[in-house]
Amino acid sequence: MRRRVVPDSTHAGRILQGLTATVMAPQVLASIRVLFPAAEQARALALYGATFGLANICGQVLGGVLVSTHPFGFAWQAIFLINLPIGLVALFGSFVVLRDSRAEHAQKLDLGGVVLLSLTLALLVYPLVEGREAGWPAWMIGMLAACPAALVAFVRFEARLSARGGDPLVALSLFRNSGLAAGLVMALAFYMLSSFYLTFAIYLQSGLHRSPMEAGIATLPFAVGYFFSSLVSSPVMQRLGVRALTLGFVLQILGFGAVILAVNQLLPNGLGIALVVAGVGYGIVVPSVIKAVLGGVDQRHAGLASGVVISTLQIGAALGVAIIGGVFYYTLGTGQTTGAYAHAFTVALGCNVVLLSLCALLVLARGRPIRCRSYHASIEVPLAAAHPTRQRLT
Known about the structure:
Layout: H1 9-35, H2 38-69, H3 83-97, H4 111-134, H5 138-163, H6 178-191, H7 195-207, H8 212-218, H9 220-231, H10 233-240, H11 243-263, H12 271-294, H13 302-332, H14 338-365, E1 369-374, E2 377-382, E3 392-393
Antiparallel strand pairs: 1-2, 1-3
């Protein structure tokens, strides 16, 4: 049965929330890049990842509680209540803790670039998120078909603006940095893992008939592993350098592989441990991949690069939910048995394992690591990411 997509106040509120989030999120990474010296950035990114892990834990439990208890008569809409106290605390903290980190020379807003890039992302993301439930109407397929043309128009507009000496929204010269380009591809593929939350929740609730609260609690081992590994990811990055990414991807591959075995009753009572292992790998990868992307970018481009990273992660999440979620439902078909849901989840998670394997291979293909010393911290970085003005070879 096709669901008709009708914009309402809920859609408007979510769009507003998304717009403000896109303004805020890149500032966090840019502030870490600018406010912290190089020797402390790994620790700052580790705490950044741990904050995500803590939010993951709280979100799974509180989300299940809110959906199950229906506070104030709300259904799933109650999950947005969490943002109110957190937003107020963050607003107050920003006035007390943060210092000004604006650029020395203000840049003009590239309105043309904003419009074209927003159009490009809208043409891509909206059909991917809503297409399956809406039955893929022709106008949504047309949006996807128009996306490449909008992207080409955006790139050409930015190139012309840069040639005239203007301030483009995205400096295309950044992509000449092979480390940044490879890191973005890796981040895109890695964040398609967001589909895991969707497919695992559907498997638990529809396949095993768990309540939303029980499904949230079942995800806790992954979130707990993510949280604690994020706390220790800083010394891991300092010790292993680029190999920390490889370690994180390998742990996720092993963990999710064990999850597949547990779901298919080939590893009895092993689901919790498997999720912990996958979560540990995830907690190592998140700060490591961000550092790999932003580490070689000059501070004056920190805000721009951070925005590109956040956009890449969000596109990866949308692609993962749409493509791998589509694989899940295609595999499920009309089956409504526990076995059918287990098989569909296995195939979908197998797609994630393949993507993680490709990410691990991409890390290995970026070049032989070299030893560098940066601000009294000895770390290993890939050859392409070595920055001659900030790092001294040993």
